Amino acid sequence: MLAVENIHTFYGLSHILFDVSLEVGESKVVCLLGRNGAGKTTTLKSIMGLTPPSRGRIRFKQKDITGTLPFRMVRKGMGYVPDDRRIFADLTVGENLEIAERKGIGGDEWDKQSVYDLFPKLKDLDHRRGGLLSGGEQKMLAIARALMGNPQFLLLDEPTEGLAPVLVKTLEERIRRLKEVGLTVLLAEQNINFTLGLSDYGYIIDNGRICYQGPVEELIDNEEVKKICGI
Ligand SMILES: Nc1ncnc2c1ncn2[C@@H]1O[C@H](COP(=O)(O)OP(=O)(O)O)[C@@H](O)[C@H]1O
Ligand SMILES: [Mg+2]
Fold first, then answer.
1. Is the pTM of this model over 0.90?
2. Which atom of ligand 1 is nearest to the CA of 44?
3. Is 130 a pocket residue for ligand 1 (Cβ < 6 Å)?
4. What are the tens digits of pLDDT across the range 24-78?
5. Among candidate residues 54, 56, 60, the one with its CA nearest the CA of residue 155
6. What does the alpha-carbon distance between residue 54 and residue 51 come to, in Å, rounded to a whole number?
7. Lower CB density within 10 Å: C or N end of the chain?
8. Shortest-distance ligand to the CA of residue 230
9. 66 CB within 6 A, ligand 1
């Protein structure tokens, strides 16, 4: 469904991604693992069109989408949950969700009701302002908001960052449910145990290069992978 082919991405003169390639098949959960500063966020931003690569190609559903603007990527069915969440602090939880609602290419099954079924905690917080939520609640809201656009594909940037262990468990369960309903996910993470438990296939990135890849069964007990990921 998504193929990133040999991309190089720069911030100004800083060369950040070197020849990064990865593939995500339909209805798969694929992870991009690496320590802080490895290039995970830049890879997702390159796919989303926020930092277009200067070399290489990105194909989404067989079409070359390299350099496509972010809002067009959303229309093509790409959902994006940035690491900094970007929820509206002055709007309530319910309002944050309502303004994101649209029939997407992925269908129309996600609406306020169904995202509240997935995240019951958010339903209790319907009238609470976004800015008053805890970090974990904001994470859930950011994912719920992306779902309101009914994407076919979800880019998730470090959803477990700063979450208490009990919330990480909940999130793991929720992402499994998304997979069950057929959503395709590319998950950027540092949390290796959480991530490999969920994914079908993984890529390890270090210093802007993919240095390892394989089915999760092969990555899970790999000492080198643990070392690269800093655990
Ligand atoms: N806006 C930016 N301008 C310049 N360098 C950046 C910018 N954002 C990130 N970087 C650098 O790019 C590298 C990769 O960062 P990032 O993709 O955010 O890594 P990760 O998400 O894996 O932590 C880091 O060395 C970081 O310092
Ligand atoms: Mg990051």
1. yes
2. 17
3. no
4. 999 999 999 999 999 999 999 999 999 999 999 999 999 999 999 999 999 999 9
5. 60
6. 9
7. C
8. 1
9. no
Placement of tokens 């998730």 in the chain: 156
Nearest CA to ligand 1 atom 16: 39
User: What does DSSP say about strands 63-64 and 55-60: parallel, antiparallel, or unpaired?
Assistant: antiparallel
In the numeric block, the tokens 């390299």 are attached to 66
Residue closest via CA to ligand 1's atom 18 equals 41
For 1-28, the pLDDT digits (tens) are 999 999 999 999 999 999 999 999 999 9
Tokens representing residue 111 in the block: 């609406």
Cβ 38 under 6 angstroms from ligand 1: yes
**Hey, what domains does the chain have and what are their CATH numbers?**
1-77+153-158+184-231 (3.40.50.300)
- Nearest-CA residue for atom 27 of ligand 1: 37
Tens-digit pLDDT profile for residues 87-137: 999 999 999 999 999 887 767 789 999 999 999 999 999 999 999 999 889
Ligand 1 contact via 15 beta carbon (within 6 Å): no
- What distance in angstroms lies between residue 127's CA and the mean position of ligand 2's atoms? 30
